[in-house]
Amino acid sequence: RIRSEAQQSEAGKKLLRRSGRDPDDISSVVLVETERSYIKSDAVLKIMEYINLPFPQLAFFLQFVPIFLRDFLYDNVANNRYAFFGRSESCEI
Predict the structure, then answer these.
(1) Residue 93: what pLDDT?
(2) What is this structure's pTM?
């Protein structure tokens, strides 16, 4: 089960601190699990494991792509997300 929390919220900042992350750094998606946290493409791959078919299988294969390539793609999508997906006044989640 995944729960979503805004990184800028007090609960989000508390999670970031607890996982050893800077609560003021919102430059990446972060997935916090009980024992570990993930950022950038590693976080996306872990989130894909929780989603229904075909995402867990896709995540399995993408883990073999070198992290510098995955993070390069992640950074480019993140930096151009409004051009790709448009802008919204509220969170779609």
Answers:
(1) 63
(2) 0.81
Asked whether the beta carbons of 3 and 19 are under 8 A apart, the reply is no
Residue with tokens 């990184």: 7
Cα 65 to the chain's mean position, in Å?
A: 17
DSSP-H helix ranges across 1-93: 10-18, 40-50, 55-62, 67-79, 81-85
Give Cβ neighbours of residue 48 (< 8 Å, ≥ 6 apart).
Answer: 55, 56, 58, 59, 62
* Cα distance between residue 34 and residue 57, in whole Å: 23
- Tokens 């872990």 -> residue: 46
Is 28 domain-assigned?
Answer: yes
| In a domain? residue 91 | no
> Cα(44)–Cα(38) distance, rounded to whole angstroms?
8
Number of structural domains found in the chain: 1
**What is the reported pLDDT for 86?**
87
